[in-house]
Amino acid sequence: MTEQTKKSLRLGLPKGSLQDSTLNLLAKAGWKVSSSSRSYLPRSDDPELELRLIRAQEISRYVEHGYLDAGITGADWITENDSDVHAVCEIAYSKQTTNPARWVLAVPNDSPIKSVKDLQGKHIATELVGHTRRWLEKHGVTAEVEFSWGATEVKAPELVDAIVDITETGSSLRANNLRIVETLCSSFPQLIANHAAWQDGWKRKKIETLALLLRGALAAEEKVGLKMNVPRAKLDALLKELPALRNPTIAPLAQDGWVAIETIADERVVREIIPQLKAAGAEGIIEYPLNKVIY
User: Fold this and answer.
1) Taking the mean position of all CA atoms in its chain, how far away is CA 263?
2) How far apart, in whole angstroms, are the C-alpha atoms of residue 105 and residue 6?
3) C-alpha angle 60/66/69, rounded to 5°?
4) CATH 3.30.70.120 residue ranges in the chain?
5) For residue 96, what pLDDT band results from cuts at 50, 70 and 90?
6) What is the DSSP string of 109-170?
7) What is the pLDDT of residue 1?
8) What is the pLDDT of residue 283?
9) Is CATH 3.40.190.10 the classification given to domain 9-97+189-220?
């Protein structure tokens, strides 16, 4: 196939706070991506992918209008932009944790504001202007909501009465002497597609492959593989101690009276049960990391 007719998918990746975790997830899914800190055009080992690093706030608009065939961005920004895109799947990861990002109302620790009703006539700064205004309207509250260009947490109380900001752990808010009053919404990243791209057979298959492997990589993050040998006479007792994704694989060993067991389990469970497996007669226990788990 010539360069002129080569098929490619233009994919938008979030630049900023989600960038590193997104590139790490892509690597586990099978795509090696390299990018300098100043580059908006990362390179991939897949010639069928054209990658663009774009602020998460803008990706859904560029997907909607066809500049991008697909993209990864938060559900919050899709809603904020009111973007007409095809939602392929949710990819449940965040910057630091596996918890969703939350948009919260926060105020200084000594503020008298205790609930949304106390915002009547107040001044609020946020990047999520549209959603915040709709949230206030739903609660029958009238307040001034201004767009914040960043560093939102330092604006209260000198510049505004309250802020609506995004957080995973709340540590940055606490560091700036702010307390959370209410949560407006929670959001995980979404893989989205342009409607025309989704109707294109080749592009849809490529996007579906991305979705399958990204979700597989995410599913593997908290799981490990486990191998061990055990005397056949102790097999039934050991299996009672052993969790498995489905059922463990059991195979006879060359040595009579012994079997090999292989399974997949949650990492936090494995660290607790290895001593129990050893006590139940298992030997040669091997724990190994996984890149992908496809259900």
Assistant:
1) 26
2) 48
3) 75
4) 223-289
5) low
6) TT-S--SGGGGTT-EEEES-HHHHHHHHHHTT---EEEE--S-GGGSTTTT-SEEEEEESSS
7) 45
8) 93
9) yes
